Amino acid sequence: MPYKFFIIPILHGEEAEREFNAFLAGHRNLQVDKDFVANGQQSFWAVSVAYASTSSTQTEGKSAAYEPKVKYEEEMSGEQFDLYTELRELRNEIAEANKVPAYKIFNNAELASMAREMPDSIAGLRKIRGIGKAKTDAHGEVFLEKLRKARNAAASGVPAPVTDEEEGRPF
Questions:
Q1: Which of 2, 89, 139, 169 has a CA-to-CA distance to 43 between 20 and 30 Å?
Q2: Which domains, and CATH codes, for the chain?
Q3: What does pTM read for this prediction?
């Protein structure tokens, strides 16, 4: 997965901000990490952006609103992609049970971030772009349990089950 790095000065950083915002608007961003570097008048934000690479042939003839489909299996490790697949299955089960579109539970990018970052708390889930109080209140604990099982399985060296057949799981 490619990365782009930005330095955004606190004073007179308008040009750097424009460049940064233009980059974000023009790419499928997978992860953004930022750190504030305090240095008096020379203080700045250091920002790294992980983004999905696309070829020019993917977007030829498409409108500006077209977003190329992300191939998560190419952007993740095998273990991360396996967990992402399990999280998608869980999401789809919940969506079907509640008769709502799957993306209303968590979208694919949010699930991919969960699989990469493996948050261990509601606060950790809320750090993922697009996940807020409503989503964590409704479904956060169920997904955290799946992440806990995957984390424990990885620590023990035993693969986590592909399906979750626990009784009483809240949908």
A1: 2
A2: 3-53 (no CATH), 72-156 (1.10.150.80)
A3: 0.55
